[in-house]
Amino acid sequence: MDEVMTTADAATLGRAALSMAQTASSVLLTPPTPPSDSSSPPSPLLPSNLPLISAFLAFALAQFLKLFTTWFKEKRWDSKRMVDSGGMPSSHSATVTALAMAIGLQDGTGSPAFAIAVILACIVMYDASGIRLHAGRQAELLNQIVCEFPPEHPLSSIRPLRELLGHTPFQVVVGGILGCIVAYLMRNTN
């Protein structure tokens, strides 16, 4: 025999489901209360995550060094280099090698986190010196082709493509060395 649900039963069921959902969301969204032990030190303002700090510091240092390498190469100061990709040293390589090195120094080279970080570093560095470098060279060639169009051509007034996307293998290696040095120095300061 089939049961028939009345509107009163549906309303009661709906109220019960709503009450359960509200209880679950309040449990999930309410932060846990800290223990009342007053002897615990306050949490630091900055996280003490060595791999994260090493990676961010290596990235910032590599981007800052691009100012000086641009001046050395082109004899001009270009502050836009601090936010651009490409150039010497590779900030992508510095970031991922600092991350992998710091994880290796902290957790050991046998940890799964180190294995993941090394694979990530290899992929990022391969991409920087391979795919992105060649995409930049293609952009340079396309920009030259567009410059040769007559002024009445519809594509002659388009904005040029960014040409400095990737890194030479030397720039990637220097970025990797910089990342390793930063992670090692950060580990020794703790």
UniProtKB/TrEMBL annotation:
Q: Which residues cross the membrane?
A: 50-68, 111-128, 164-186
Pfam families associated with the record = DUF212
Transmembrane helix: is it a keyword of this entry?
yes
What's the protein called, per UniProt? Acid phosphatase/vanadium-dependent haloperoxidase-related protein
Which InterPro entries does UniProt cross-reference here? Answer: DUF212
Q: Which UniProt keywords apply?
A: Membrane, Transmembrane, Transmembrane helix
The UniProt record lists the keyword Transmembrane: yes
